[in-house]
Design brief:
120 residues, mainly alpha, binds zinc ion
Length: 120
């Protein structure tokens, strides 16, 4: 598992580097008023960079948990996470049961509203 996480981390870091380069090259020139050439691509790359950075974060913390022998344990209930689940989602910190609960909590209308915040 460690090997796999390390390989995925390296891959993600490389992807981030490439994205940073692309962002550098496709930087939109604001204030010129000549349309949005390059802007869409830049925006997409920014979003992709966020995703890759989140993945790097998740992989690093998975490796740290591996180090502390906490890997494969549910953050919420402390139960052992199903190895099959870890196979698919090596960076998960929740067992299937808690993940399901977390999902249904997030889906509650109240929770969604509080995330969006008050409308002006
Ligand atoms: Zn759990």
């Amino acid at each position: 598992m460690r090997h796999r996480l390390e390989a995925e981390l390296r891959e993600a870091e490389q992807e981030l580097q490439e994205l940073e380069l692309q962002l550098e090259h496709t930087k939109p020139e604001f204030g010129l008023g000549t349309g949005s050439t390059g802007f869409d691509e830049w925006e997409v790359n920014m979003l992709r960079r966020d995703t890759v950075m989140a993945r790097i974060e998740a992989l690093r913390s998975a490796l740290a948990r591996l180090e502390e022998d906490q890997f494969g344990r549910c953050e919420r209930c402390g139960a052992k996470i199903d190895p099959e689940r870890l196979e698919i989602l090596p960076t998960t910190t929740l067992c299937a049961e808690c993940a399901r609960k977390a999902r249904s909590e997030a889906a509650l209308p109240g929770a969604a509203r509080s995330r969006v915040g008050p409308r002006r």
